[in-house]
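User: structure tokens for Class I SAM-dependent methyltransferase family protein, please.
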Amino acid sequence: MNEVPCVRVRPSAGEETRQKLAGRDLLHPAYEITVSEGWLYIPVVAVPDGYTVEEHAVPERDQQTMPADVLGFEPSYTRLGDIAILDEDDPDRAREIADALVASDLPLCSVLNRASKVKGELRVREWDVLAGETTTVHREYGTEFALDLEAVYFSPRLATERHRVIEQVQPDEQFIDMFAGVGPFVVPAAARGANTVGVDLNPVAIEFLEENADRNGVTDRVTAINADVREIDYTGWADRIVMNLPHSADAFLDTAVRLAGDECLLHYYDIQHEDDPFGPGERAIRAAASGYSVTVETRHTVRSYAPHELNVCLDVRLSQ
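Assistant: Done. Predicted tokens:
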């Protein structure tokens, strides 16, 4: 605690006074505003006219060190749990940013730099581990997901899109995620009362899906299957199907139609040129869904994927 000049006002006038002092650049950045014996003490860098000013003991402000304070510029990174994810081509720059992130007061334990694109049928990528480990627990809209980025695919950038879909889920509906990963669609859908099936070729992803179902208290409504989704025996079962495999979901449309019940909402993800982002997917769905009435309920752009390419979602209702 240090004795510094403070404007003394009653708490009822505190916010108005603070704003006026801030507008005149008079607030002291190194000290906290303090309440004592019914008075508010606002530390100032100079004595302003028109206020009662007196010396008062106030605590120093706890100022966080941010990465930009170390680097001199604002670095670009994505947070996933306690991991910072970089996408830097220059290894020296990546190392500089990683060191600054670790030195900052941000609650980070690990820094990873992307070393490859997502590849292979298990949809994983290589990483340069610049600090810490590749495992974390990510929290998203009240749900926790344990994962290992070295062994599974997970994109924190799709959190808003996942929430958009999950908000539509109804209790007791029958929900299939054909490419479930660690369960970012399945687990919150189960939390809303759906009976869910999550399928993935990656055995590690399925292990994490089971762990995440347990972590979030929904194991009784989650069935996790390590298999090619084309081989599962849930014909005519689903009320809702998620197909988040945007580069090749069209190859699985026959399976989706087989899994669909008499009435089913399909969330079909695609990546297409901005000139016609929805047309190819819609045409593919209509061609595959013989025997169903096909209604496109939503044409939704998720995000920009690459120059002139969009990641999109079609919410399509199939009705017998």
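User: Anything notable?

Assistant: The mean pLDDT is 93.
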